[in-house]
Design a protein that fits this description.
342 residues, Quinone Oxidoreductase, Chain A, domain 1, 2 domains, six-stranded parallel sheet
Length: 342
């Protein structure tokens, strides 16, 4: 099979198309013919060796969907021909969090797809059956592959922990990124008014076309007063935070009494300061959200299909263009996601 192999950490040029043996599924795995694989910023981090350094050589890529072509001897709930998507990490399936459907908090995680085991930049990949979810009929592979990574945190932020209700106001920071654009779409189809925050005037009209009711251009994160002006001094019911500490004062200033602040992205990793008296007096709720469990992904894929959500796909490219795709990301040219199609 053809696969994009990383044999040394570095720039996009380290991603090289090679011929590898087609994998065989273990007893508890399924072999997928990869139909679509998203190119995520995490892929660039893995490729560079900037944070973690998985064992090389490695086939990266965790945003994947495909068609099952073979199942292991112990797999009884999936069969060849099934269309499936995968969550992007491996869990034990036995700890208290796995048992209650919150596998993102697994106490004994077994690592990420595309890091501790071969990922989706390939024609075929073997995936544990515990990772797989059937794709609803009619939902394209290109959309389904983005369910677990690109759509799961915004979905959980808006609908699960954020509990958005029709008519409420939702602020989305980093709105022109993949997570931000998904949050806007999910909030819109949930009946909320959306206020998008971006640093680029050039992206305003695109965000409005995506469904944002208002767009605030803010390069320094001091957009709280602007949100209050747009809401008659009340503030937002929900803030979906995709940027993190770099803009932290802005979301807090934006929040209404009883508001919910949900963090799904943090770009700096630096501590922030908060006056806990405000949390008490205004009864704010502050949450962090991680990746999707199988239960989450199943719900998300059906929600995408039912509401006809269309992820923003910037470009679809073949496997041998993986390095070019990473260059586009590095140059900040991409609006939405690039999809690799073997």
């Amino acid at each position: 099979m053809k696969a994009v192999v990383l044999r040394a950490y570095g720039g996009p040029e380290e991603l090289k198309l090679e011929e590898l043996p087609r994998p065989s599924p273990a007893p508890d795995e399924a072999l997928l013919r990869v139909r679509a694989c998203g190119v995520c910023h995490l892929d660039m981090i893995v490729r560079s060796g900037m944070r973690s350094r998985p064992k090389l050589p490695l086939v990266i890529g965790h945003e994947l969907s495909g068609e099952i072509v073979e199942v292991g001897a112990a797999v009884t709930d999936f069969a060849p021909g099934d269309r499936v998507a995968s969550i992007n990490y491996q869990v034990c399936g036995e700890c208290k969090w796995c048992r209650v459907g919150r596998a993102s908090l697994c106490m004994h995680p077994r690592g990420e797809i595309g890091q501790v085991r071969q990922g989706g930049y390939a024609e075929y990949v073997a995936i544990p059956r515990a990772n797989l979810v059937r794709i609803p009929d009619g939902l394209p592979f290109e959309y389904a592959c983005l369910g677990a990574c690109c759509f799961a945190p915004p979905y959980k932020a808006v609908r699960l922990v954020g509990r958005v209700r029709p008519g409420e106001t939702v602020v989305v920071t980093g709105a022109s990124g993949g997570l931000g654009m998904a949050a806007i779409q999910i909030a819109r189809v949930s009946g909320a008014r959306t206020i998008a925050i971006t640093t680029s005037q050039a992206k305003v009209e695109r965000l409005k076309a995506l469904g944002a009711d208002e767009v605030i251009v803010s390069r320094d994160g001091t957009f709280g007063d602007d949100v209050r002006k747009l809401t008659g001094g009340i503030g937002a019911d929900l803030v979906v935070e995709t940027v993190g500490g770099a803009v932290f004062p802005g979301p807090l200033r934006s929040l209404a009494r009883g508001g919910r602040y949900v963090v799904i992205g943090e770009l700096t990793g630096k501590p922030v300061e908060i006056n806990l008296a405000l949390v008490i007096l205004k009864e704010w709720e502050i949450y962090g959200v991680e990746s999707a469990s199988r239960e989450d992904l199943n719900e998300i894929l059906h929600f995408m299909h039912r509401t006809a959500l269309q992820p923003t796909i910037w470009k679809t490219m073949p496997l041998d263009a993986a390095a070019e795709a990473h260059r586009h990301l590095t140059n900040r040219e991409v609006v939405g996601r690039i999809i690799l199609k073997p």
